[in-house]
Structure formats: C-alpha cells, structure tokens
Amino acid sequence: MRRAMRAAAVGLAVVVLASGCATPPGAPPWPRPTDLAARAEAAGLHDVWGQRLAEHIHTHLTITDGGEPVVVPGNIGHSAKQRFAAEIHTHDTSGIVHVESPERRTFTLGQFFDEWDVSLGPAHVGGLHGDLTVWVDGRRYYANPRSIELRDLEQVDLVVTTIGEVPHRPPAFDWPPQYH
Fold it and tell me: Residue 129: CA atoms inside 13 Å, Cβ hemisphere, count?
C-alpha cells in the first residue's frame, strides 16, 4: 500500500512539474531570484550580456490580487554588477519586462515566470488562487497564460479575484516616451 501511494505521489509530482506548475510559493511579494544563471537555464534562456541584439521587446505585466497590485521585482534575470542579462529580464519595479536577444524568436510569459521562480498556470499565479482572469492588450485571454507571447508595447494583466467576484481590468499602462 505504501509503495503504491509513494508511486502515485511521484507520478503526480512528475505531471505537475512537467506542466510548468510546480508547487506555488506563498503569497506575494515574491523576491527576485539570486542565482540568475540557474533560473535563466531553468527557463531556457541564455546570458546575452554584451552581445549584439537582433530583438528588443518591452511588454508590461500587471498582477493584481483582489484589487491590490503585486510588485514585479527589478533585476529578475539582470545584474550590472555580475554583468549578466538573460534574454528576458526586468530592470526596475515598473512591470516592464524586457526581451533582448541576439536572435529573433518567440519568448513567452511562462519563461519569464520560470525565470522568476514563481509558478503560473491556468488557475493560479504563485500561491494566489481564486479566479484568474487574463487580458492581453485589453482583450480577454482564455488559454494558459504561460503561452502568452511577449510582444512589443503590449500589456498583460493577470487579475486574481475571489471565486465569483467580478474582475476589473487595470487601467492601460502609460508607456514612458523612451519606449515609443
């Protein structure tokens, strides 16, 4: 009996990890990871510090929990001191996610969350559970939010509400002039 239960638990863990929904951390704030190289590798990203870039994208990410904003930390995947910049990273707490790559390819929100070490799935953001409503540039998004492609000057809103509560989309992000 114990062996069957252990095998079932291992099987469940494999399914959960393979789906990109590892055990969610607790409630926010979720700090930036300190092992930048390991987190980048876990997300399938590389250090591109000092490389010539073929792609430069900025996507704004807003996360709200019951109407309260969740801070996206600065320097996820980036450190000037360590001379490290993953292809996806943040510089500050504005919610602007930078994609800087020597090659043009698709980068996803799921990769950013893997790098941040915060789980993201169709029904949760980290340890936040309830109803997850997703908007991309003001349009409802019904697929798994991990699959959202990061595109230039788009806004991604992840809104977690109590089950049954009506979600409200955050106001449009006012992009600073240097991004236009």
Answer: 6
Three-class secondary structure of residue 142 per DSSP: coil
Contact call for residues 103 and 55 (beta carbons, < 8 A): yes
| Spatial contact of 62 and 155, defined as CB atoms under 8 Å apart | yes
| Omega within 30 of 0 (cis) for the link into 29 | yes
Structure tokens at 26: 């607790």
Q: What one-letter code names the amino acid at 145? A: P
The alpha-helical segments, DSSP class H, found in 128-175 are none
Tell me what the pLDDT averaged over the chain comes to: 88
pLDDT, tens digit, 9 for 90 and up, residues 78-137: 999 999 999 999 999 999 999 999 999 999 999 999 999 999 999 999 999 889 999 999
